[in-house]
Amino acid sequence: MKIHGIQFGFMFLTLNLLLLTGCQPAPQQGSGGLTYPTAPTPGNEIADPRGFLFEHRAKALEIVQAAAESPLAGLRTNALEAAQDMPEHARDMLAQGIRDDNPAVRFVALTVMGKLRLSSLIPDARARLQMVMNPYGQLPSLLFAAVR
Fold it and tell me: Any idea where the domains of the chain sit in the sequence?
């Protein structure tokens, strides 16, 4: 296999860069400059895991609820999908999602409603039936919710 000049130059630069910087990955940073360890190590164990999880679950719930009220439809759909893991708080978010003007948000709300088997929201969903139909005349999300 013959290596052309450009390919050789690229390989040479890559090798030099690796030798100069080393092969260690850069530390990961999340929002706000906080670092998040991927696994517990002998210095970063959590003293009270239940308290830690409770505290962070409350923060996660706040984030999901704020996203459910976002002006961006993508954030609202993501919040409704995340509500699947918080069924005790999902009902109000899903009821709001069913009444949303965006068809993608309504679709996700009805699908999550079916996954969580929230039959109490079906009357509200039926009232918005015409706003859920796709160009093929199918109502997959509503059928999914009704069958469950």
Answer: 51-148
